[in-house]
């Protein structure tokens, strides 16, 4: 008869662990570590590469997933958002023509609103003019166009939710420098992700990298 051994993880209450985390999968691993390591000994560096700004709010999806999971308020079925979340605000924003591809729940909305107001309490979000230095350093981007993701190649539809016209909006400081850029109806970050795929248009990939380079050069020179 085969013998079966039951393995139990020994607790490690007196060690320190630094974890690199993404979103749903990493949050489950962190929850396990949280059970065997003293909370003060667990440091987590969370991905911010997927951060976006939507409806004037700075959103950090992975950071929120990790926070909600460790706080015990995550929706276990979806793996993101609050348990029992509602989406009334998102539905009303859609009525007014605002983009709604990102499922921003009502309680999430409160989190992000408070966050962005703490960062920029008195700064309006305005359209960035084509002659702004951010579009001239070093590449001339006044003729930039909408960038779509790989989903556009798969579906044949180059936009989402009627978002045909792209916009670049920003928050400026007192010296007229752009502090934050919001891209509406343009998926620049998707162009970086899919640039090495032979099926992804070079025009989108090239413009995406030129935009990124301009953002970096502008931030170092202005």
Q: What does this protein look like?
A:
- Helix 1 runs parallel beside helix 2 (61-71).
- Mean pLDDT is 77; it is low at 1-9.
- Helix content is 35%, strand content 14%.
- The protein has a 3-stranded antiparallel β-sheet, with no helix packed on it.
- The protein has helices spanning 24-36, 61-71, 88-95, 106-119, 150-155, 188-193, 202-221; strands spanning 17-21, 42-46, 52-54, 57-59, 126-127, 167-172, 178-184.
- With 222 residues, the chain is of the alpha+beta class.
- The protein has 7 helices and 7 strands; from the N terminus they run βαβββαααβαββαα.
- A hairpin with a 5-residue loop joins strand 6 and strand 7.
- The protein is globular.
- It folds into 2 domains: 17-119, Orthogonal Bundle (Helicase, Ruva Protein, domain 3), CATH 1.10.8; 126-221, no CATH class.
